[in-house]
Amino acid sequence: DTEVTQTPKHLVMGMTNKKSLKCEQHMGHRAMYWYKQKAKKPPELMFVYSYEKLSINESVPSRFSPECPNSSLLNLHLHALQPEDSALYLCASTPSGGATDTQYFGPGTRLTVL
Amino acid sequence: RKEVEQDPGPFNVPEGATVAFNCTYSNSASQSFFWYRQDCRKEPKLLMSVYSSGNEDGRFTAQLNRASQYISLLIRDSKLSDSATYLCVVDHFGNEKLTFGTGTRLTIIP
Lengths: 114, 110
Description:
The complex is a heterodimer of chains A (114) and B (110). With 114 residues, chain A is mostly beta strands. Helix content of chain A is 0%, strand content 56%.
């Protein structure tokens, strides 16, 4: 199994809703990432978990809350989002989080905030 | 100066032609370099890592010039399926964070 899965594929939510994005990998990778990608822009790093501990938070607003329940799962909890948060949210994993590791991306969740 | 800079294109190239992209990076301490490919409305996928000695994979050749702080990607005998956005990716001070360039959009024309 060499893939990263993400659910849901699409999500539409209001600004007062609470929702969660899920990411899963069964490659034994120990580092997992959340990226945000706006149209025609590159992915922007949000969070990195390394060995189930948050190692990087790129000054992301608190309305985004990551969680890593175990080494295979990564969640992103969303609350009180703004329309400008609408984007493609990509999850990725790497074997160890090393700089030379290949990043394996999931297909993304396309989020629309109304 | 941006950490990683690419010409956004678009590059419109006839099928069978050779096309080259460059990417410059600002941090001389960077150690790892990659080219990723992203198709429209899809996730990025690794095309190739870029090694100091340069490397080739079929029709694709990647080069690294540390002195001038740029990497390049050459695509020979381009195919319609090569149409995509090519992202230059550089590590950040050798840690787990990667910095993505803005991407170069390539369209191969029949």
